[in-house]
Amino acid sequence: MKKKKIINLVLENIKTIVGALFIAIIIRSLLFQPFYIPSSSMEPTLLIGDRIFVSKYTYGYSRHSFPFSPKLINERLFNEAPTLGDLVVFKTPVDNRTDYIKRLIGLPGDQIQFIEGEIYLNNKRIIKKKITDIELVRCGKISFKVNAYEETLPNGRKYVAVYNKSGTLQNSKKFIVPENHFFFLGDNRDCSKDSRFLQSVGYVSHINLVGKAQIIFFSNDTVSGSLFKFWNLGNSFRFNRVFKKIK
């Protein structure tokens, strides 16, 4: 009898664990998924050490909505087009495995080009307004001085982008976004591998969209120190970023 009770207890625990895992996978695949920000390519909007929630349902679902990207479907289900200015998590086209987060700047059919340091979208200059409260951002292990601007897209969406004071991209080829693809840029314009680099990122297929960044739920400055060093908590834990809505 004792042996039977132990077996039943083990089975019940296994059922509980399997059920919890199933619920977690459903939430992660269909509703929200947490992501960690490991790079400075989206400064000042997102900082190294930010942890964010990404909504998986905003643009519908593809195989990349699920763990390990199973090749069960080749299209998007319940497809909804993203909006210019959205911060989007996507799988990089080069390997269909690595997660990137960038800002959507070009929709299918759009033309994007840098001319004399200005961004032109469909031959119209994106409006920029200089701001003075941001002067320094990170790029990997270093920091550099920047010019910061509030940029306004044609749909009225506003965000902050920064450009290296020591030299920024002045001119580029004209990028023409293919059908069912999108063009992304990092807000930290001179420290971002994005759609400008056709060999490594390039145009991103609608199949590769994972979800839309919604909120920062936790943030720890890993450069300043670890959370485990509780005596340095005031320098490492960014209290002002907790539950901050992402723009």
Write structural notes for this entry.
- The chain has helices spanning 2-31, 233-236, and strands at 32-36, 50-55, 87-91, 99-106, 111-115, 118-121, 124-125, 127-131, 136-139, 142-152, 158-164, 175-176, 181-185, 204-205, 209-219, 244-245.
- By secondary structure, the protein is of the alpha+beta class.
- The mean pLDDT is 88.
- It has two helices and 16 strands.
- The strands form three sheets. Strands 1, 2, 3, 4, 13, 14, 15 and 16 form an eight-stranded antiparallel sheet that branches. The protein has a four-stranded antiparallel sheet with strand order 7-6-5-12, with no helix packed on it. Strands 8, 9, 10 and 11 form a four-stranded antiparallel sheet that branches.
- It has a single domain (2-245), classed as Umud Fragment, subunit A, CATH 2.10.109.10.
- The radius of gyration is 21 Å and the shape is globular.
- 14% of the residues lie in helices and 34% in strands.
- A hairpin with a 5-residue loop joins strand 10 (142-152) and strand 11.
